[in-house]
Amino acid sequence: MSRTLKSTPLSLSSPSFSSPFSLKTYAAPHSTLSFKPQKSKAAHTNICNKSPLYSTKRFTSPQNMLDNTSSSSSTRQNRWNLHGRTALVTGGTRGIGRAIVEELVGFGARVHTCCRNGSELDKCLEDWNDVCSGGMISGSVCDVSVGAQRQELMETVSSIFGGKLNILVNNVGTNIRKPMVEFTPEEFSTLMTTNFESAFHISQLAYPLLKASGEGSVVFTSSVSGFVSLKSMSVHGVTKGAINQLTKNLACEWAKDNIRSNAVAPWYIKTSMVEQVLSNKSYLEEVYDRTPLRRLGEATEVSALVAFLCLPASSYITGQIICIDGGMSVNGFFPSHG
Ligand SMILES: NC(=O)c1ccc[n+]([C@@H]2O[C@H](COP(=O)([O-])OP(=O)(O)OC[C@H]3O[C@@H](n4cnc5c(N)ncnc54)[C@H](OP(=O)(O)O)[C@@H]3O)[C@@H](O)[C@H]2O)c1
């Protein structure tokens, strides 16, 4: 059963945890962010005043006059804010999902999120309450791997956003690491329902709301495992590969309704999901060796890209799966030693 909590603006003190990455305790990167919804007009005006590069006049050229973009994205201010938009982000209480919630609210969107743990959700809503103005963030307890709960979640979303949704971020995902032959049917089913079926069904349920908004953006959280082979991640890779193809198909199928569909595909990002596997120091060294930028990613580095894909600034981008991986997926053979 999902329930809706009264939305309260939030404090960004997400749990600290012992980090294998730095061998010391750190707080999740977004925990230190302050993101009262931007008064983008004023901020924009300031920028414009400071730099002639941002002068509207400078860009009033014959080409600009021929500009065919929709009126909602035709000024810089409109391209880079989400005021008046509504969003659903699944799995928004930790890790990448939490960073996405905060990023979207920072751009002015109203966001609904969900997770399974009710007390963790309450804590997040309380925290967020301290830094947001009222009504910007709300949440439901919902296990997205259960069909009836997905249905109930979307009914809640429809009711609080008046039947219109601009942004859907299908973020929830999990992992079971083991060789393919060792998977039980139950484990296989857990990964398929949590990672793929949930995103497929929530997208289906969200379609009328996205269409009704007149300008929709769906973003999936995929993984580099959907592109390249990763140890003990055959089934995870299959679920993310399916997400990648769905991303492309929806881009074509829903373009007529002005709904875009894109995905982000991270490599290792510092979240609770990968804390345990990266606590193995020699494995972590191998990860660094394989990653041209020689570090792990931050949740905010993913959320920034997701926000961009939701902004009118990316209005001509659809059907793309963008790796956010420190160069890992393009590293054919480039040994770090010699
Ligand atoms: N971290 C990485 O290195 C990495 C790399 C590639 C791809 N990804 C992808 O990024 C996404 C987010 O990963 P993350 O690392 O941020 O994970 P995380 O730190 O484990 O956070 C997962 C979030 O989703 C919620 N959640 C999990 N299962 C759920 C379910 N069945 N129903 C509803 N909510 C659920 C969790 O809350 P509850 O537990 O309370 O439900 C939590 O809010 C996933 O799709 C993952 O595959 C992550």
From TrEMBL:
Biased amino acid composition, Polar residues: 54-68
Pfam families: adh_short_C2
The keyword Oxidoreductase is assigned to this record: yes
InterPro entries the record matches: NAD(P)-bd_dom_sf, SDR_fam, TR
The entry's keywords: NADP, Oxidoreductase
GO MF, any single term: oxidoreductase activity
Disordered: annotated span: 54-78
Family under the similarity heading: Belongs to the short-chain dehydrogenases/reductases (SDR) family. SDR65C subfamily.
PANTHER family, per the entry: ENOYL-(ACYL CARRIER) REDUCTASE, TROPINONE REDUCTASE
Protein name: Tropinone reductase homolog
The species this protein was found in: Populus euphratica
